[in-house]
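ok so i was messing around last nite and threw this chain in just to see what happens. nothing serious, just curious
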Amino acid sequence: MLKIKPILASIIGMTTLLISSLLVSGKQYLLLSFIFFVMGMYPLYQRFERRKMTAREIVFIAVLATIAAVSRVPFAMLPSVQPTSFVIIVAAMILGKESGFVIGATAALVSNMFLGQGPWTLWQMFCWGLMGYTAGLLGKTPFLQEMWGRLVFGFIWGFIFGWIMNLWYVIGFIQPLTALTFLQAYAASFYFDLAHALSNVFFLFFFSASWLKIIQRFQKKYGLLDFEENHF
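result:
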């Protein structure tokens, strides 16, 4: 029986959403967000659910997700500047891609309980979840083990996060949707995407080395979440 890997299923879900957005009215963005959630995130959640985990390991993931979520709240007055992405990246590097996805997605959901829920929440869950997944996927590679690699990764993801989130805005509010209005929407978000990218660089540069040691120390001390094999 043919099995589609979770990350590939998520990409298929994104592609389906984009095609659908061209065929239906912009007023259907809530429906599109739901489709996006199901097709883009369900395969990754399902993979995580199949893992055998102890209560201690689940609590450990929940604590890290909570830290990532709460750390976003004090920075709410500074658009796109927050340490949430930093926490997700360093946690995923130690705990692996599946745990990284859950930490990222949960952080978005929990932080929006303070900052406001809406159709954008599903998109943020996917963005931060995918950020954690890719950080976990590359966590033990020489690229992310080096400081310069982590800075490049964080900088690039600051823009990827914004570009994916822009799709929600474009689908929901841009009418008529043309190549010009699409490009204008993305150009208008450049400052916010750059702010996110630079804040990732800042937090990773000053805090990633110490946080990686702390998380790894907890992992080894309590025998939590052995690092997953890097395969798609």
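not much to say yet. The two ends are 18 Å apart (CA to CA).
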